[in-house]
Amino acid sequence: MNKLKRNDFMHVSVMLFGLFFGAGNLIFPPLLGNQAGTSMWIAFLGFAITAIVFPVVGAIVVGKTEGLTNLASRVGPIFALVFTTAIYISIGPGMGIPRAGSVPFEMAIAPYLPESFSVTLARLIYTFVFFAIAMWVCLNPSKLVVRVGKYLTPSLLLLITLMFIRVILLPSNVGQPVGDYANAPLVKGFLSGYETMDAIAALNFGFVVAVSIKRFGVKDKKVVTKYTIKSGLIAGSLLTLVYAMLSLIGMRTSGLLVGAKNGVVILTANVREAFGEFGLVLLAGIFTLACLTTCIGLITSGGEYFYTLFKEKLSYRAWVYIWTIFSFLMANFGLNKLLAISVPMLLIIYPVALLLIVMGISHDLFKYEKLSYLFSAVVAVVLPVINVMATSFKVRIPFLTNFEESLPLADKGLSWLLPTLGVLVVAYLVEKLINSEKLKV
Q1: Cβ atoms < 10 Å from Cβ of 173
Q2: How far is CA 334 from CA 134, 321, 327, 329, in A?
Q3: Which of 23, 200, 311, 316 could be stapled to 103 by a disulfide with Cβ–Cβ 3.0 to 4.6 Å?
Q4: Which domain holds residue 149?
Q5: Is 94 exposed, middle or buried (0-12, 13-18, 19+ CB in 10 A)?
Q6: HSE-CB of 430 using CA atoms within 13 angstroms
């Protein structure tokens, strides 16, 4: 069979949206709306580039190349092994999965516990149930599309829509943009989307989507790619709609909640105004479902990767148990220590992830060769390493740190951007020159 039923296709598309949409995706847009105020739509445009376009394109690229390893192998086999493993660990049990279990508890439940009730015990109970449900879904990947795409994610979308409709009908008080949103709302929105780290998650989830499509009996590679692209576009459309709703919620009270530190404060104030105390229950449900769907995607993709990496010596189910149990323990006892290592790792691998997405989607057009991938990837890794050493570990490398800090956009953490593009262009032109000389001979 080389065709998906319409319902199956929609479930795959909705599943991809659910895999992307975690706690960070829920709290960044309201904060953007709050701080951008009357400039919200300009800021939202920049946010959409890094929080929607890059993740969707990344999922399509990985689905098209049949896995992140194949995409990264264009740089080199050693790079592919190190880079791919670093991504799966850092965004998986190294940070993404434990945080997915603890964040909804800390944001939507812990603040409202009775003073007499132990927060530690409540977190233990909550995360145990959370990870038990995630493990149950992940142990049978053939039912992943149905459980996430048909039930969990539609429930999440329904709750968010209900919250938006009720909140947006209330009287609003829109304020003026503050901070960087007042000076450069487009750039600030772009950088805010960059912080969601969804482009890295996309490099995991694209493979999950491609495998899910194949499980419906679609075997032809071109057809799988076609459905992956269409699923990505629908997931991107849903992300755009939901982000816009959340940003508008933040914008409507931007004149009242001046100086709000995060999106949780903004959402809590709005749902309380709209629903009373029931709004807190609604918000807890939204946070839990958002994190659960993302957690399921991370466990599934990681389990599949390590099952293949270790030549099937451990079963996929065994890897699901390992990742889930480890993440449960870290969510309760070691998340802060884990974040101290994983966050710098993400800051290092994120730029080269963006580079591979751009090169992957344009590969058929430009026909990049090894030189282009290798040299541009080196720059996209080395400059962030220098930056992270100085900012996270307070280690300054003679000459190199000063050089990195002198580059354009270094103050925004984007010192790698222009040099990487420059090296890519030069390497590409050199490749074309060498090939043309060979043809003459």
Answers
A1: 11
A2: 20, 18, 9, 7
A3: 23
A4: 6-333
A5: buried
A6: 13
Minimum mean pLDDT range among 2-6, 83-87, 176-180, 283-287: 2-6
State the pLDDT at residue 1.
59
Confidence band, pLDDT 50/70/90 cuts, at residue 110: confident
Residue 278: both structure tokens together: 């029931």
The answer to whether residue 339 sits within a structural domain is no
Residues 282 and 365 occupy one common structural domain: no
SS3 57: helix
Domain match, 374 and 228 both:
no
Mean pLDDT in residue range 405-431 = 93
Note whether 54 and 123 are same-domain residues: yes
Clarify whether residues 51 and 129 are in a common domain. yes
Residues 182, 188: Cα–Cα separation, whole Å: 9
Q: What is the mean pLDDT of the chain?
A: 90
Predicted local confidence at residue 231, as pLDDT:
93
Amino acid occupying residue 362: S
Distance CA 156, CA 374 (A): 41
CATH code for position 89 = 1.20.1740.10
SS3 of 358, please? helix
pTM: 0.87
